[in-house]
Amino acid sequence: TGCCASAKFEYVEAAILELLRQRLQDLTLRRESAAKADTAPLEAKLAAARKELAAANSQKARLYELLELQEYDLPTFRERMAIVRDKITGIESLIGATEHRLRELRAVDTATQAKRLAEILDAYEDSDAPHRNALLKSVIDVIWYTKAKKTKPMDFELEIVYKPN
After folding, report:
1. Helical pair 129-139 and 110-124, crossing angle rounded to 10 deg
2. Which of 26, 65, 131, 144 is close enough to 127 for a disulfide, judged by CB 3.0 to 4.6 Å?
């Protein structure tokens, strides 16, 4: 049964390479149809939010000063501090969401992904087994292989999860 196991492996390997070629083609088409996402508006929004956060933190520090100088009584301090803390929490949430969106946009750099995938496909055939494995692992996070029992060796499905840039 050693011959059949290697034949099955060859089918799976061929299917993986075909999926990589299809992904390269999809990335190339996507790159041609859409320019790289413009992150400038998000970066400006992030800078403004950080500036606003610094101002809110300064306001918070000033509240402590006013309490120490006995300009504010404790109930007034607590009331105004709650407002400032809510403001800071909202700004921090906005900053987190904006940073997350920027990371997403930067990760979808199709030109870089396509270039890397093309390099891997070019180097794959001339590589030995350990190097082939390393090449695939550099772009693939997980592969799910499913096959029903007692079906032909080529009757299987693959699902690939690719690594982000």
Report:
1. 170
2. 131
